[in-house]
Amino acid sequence: MRAPSLGSTILVAMVAIAAAAIGAVISRSIPPSGEAKAATPVPVGGHPNFSGIWQANNEANWDLQAHAALPAAVTQPGVYPYEYARVPAAPVLALGAAGAVPGSLGVVQDDGQIPYKPEALAKKKENADNWIDRDPELKCYLPGTPRAMYMPFPFQITQSTNQVHIAYDFSNTARTIHMDKVEGPPDDTWMGHSVGRWEGDTLVVDVTNFNDRTWFDRAGNYHSAALHLTERYTMKSPDVIWYEVTIEDPEVFTKPWKIAMPLYRRAEPNIQLLEFRCNEFAEEFMYGSLRKQQLVKHWEGDTITVDITRKVPEGDRFYEWYGR
Using CA atoms, how far apart are residues 214 and 56, in angstroms rounded to an integer? Predict the structure, then answer.
């Protein structure tokens, strides 16, 4: 038998290498079983398509600013009179580490500071000290804008040529970004009135007509009804939106300031927006004191016993009316 020539040997080797390379490319292009294959969204009207289910992955809902980890959102003095030595307050003591506040590098841009007026900063600190009584999130009120964008819940964007609809998991909240001129609402709103425009591939949204009932986070950062937001949505990749907000409120802040963060596409194959109708979850918390017989008043575990005494807020018109 005649031995193969050097040329034929090299040809066979080259074919084998090419086949192996093609096989490797094919194997990388086929996602494992159960894994969603990323798809580039089809543009809408020549603009990036933001449609999909998204979620922030940060600690901004706890506090927009950089902060160290804390033992709880509400604390009280411990053995030593230092801020770092404070301990969880009684209402959250039984939560242990689950009630702790994770640390964060913050999402406030530039110097990382929120430019409060002196009297407004005092109110912000008072809000933080009274978080359980004052944070609208605990009562399942509508979260407001921009807070709804970075709460630890997903939201769904549905984009058309003249409207962008955003549906939020928390409290079944929703808002519409109008891409054409429309009349504003007849009264101030929780989520604001949103009017959008395109600057290149960036969706820019002016949000106005707010009430003063919402907070920016659990740390007591707040605003007045004069709040004006300028949101900027920029598609950084098929699965990442860069979200920036310029915040203006001359009644509370000395100058405009900005927050920014990425929003990530939820890529599970069966992802869908579920309902978190939290109103009923907050009923006992908010209105339990209206019962003739107190329902929740005692809890006992292995390491702690909690007794609850309901208290009617002084001067609350609802309680006064209901108790007649």
Answer: 19
Residue 189: φ, ψ to 5°: -130, 165
- pLDDT tens digits for 65-115? 999 999 999 999 999 989 889 999 999 999 999 999 999 999 999 999 999
CA–CA dist 281, 77 (Å, integer): 30
Tens digit of each residue's pLDDT (9 = 90 or more) over 40-49: 678 888 999 9
All structural domains of the chain with their residue ranges:
52-59+105-265, 68-102, 291-322
194 DSSP β-pair partners: 177, 207
Give the separation between CA 228 and CA 276, rounded to whole angstroms.
Answer: 28
Alpha-carbon distance of 147 to 137, in angstroms, equals: 10
Q: List Cα–Cα distances, 276 to 67, 152, 280, in angstroms.
A: 28, 12, 10
Token pair recorded at residue 9? 């040997």
Tokens coding 90 = 């009684």
In the CATH hierarchy, which fold is given to the domain comprising 52-59+105-265?
A: Lipocalin (2.40.128)
Task: Name 142's Cβ contacts closer than 8 Å, sequence gap at least 6.
Answer: 136, 148, 171, 173, 190, 191, 214
At 28, the amino acid letter reads R
Please tell me whether residue 122 adopts helix, strand or coil conformation. helix
Q: Measuring CA to CA, which residue among 7, 280, 249 is closest to residue 124?
A: 249
Q: Which two tokens stand for residue 233?
A: 């949505």
Pair 66, 105: CB distance under 8 Å: yes
pTM for the predicted model, two decimal places: 0.84
Count, residues in the chain? 324
Alpha carbon 174 to its chain centroid, in Å, reads: 14
| SS3 assignment, position 176 | strand
- The rounded distance, in Å, linking the Cα atoms of 93 and 304 is 9
The whole-angstrom separation of Cα 203 and Cα 197 is: 6
Give 96's DSSP letter: G
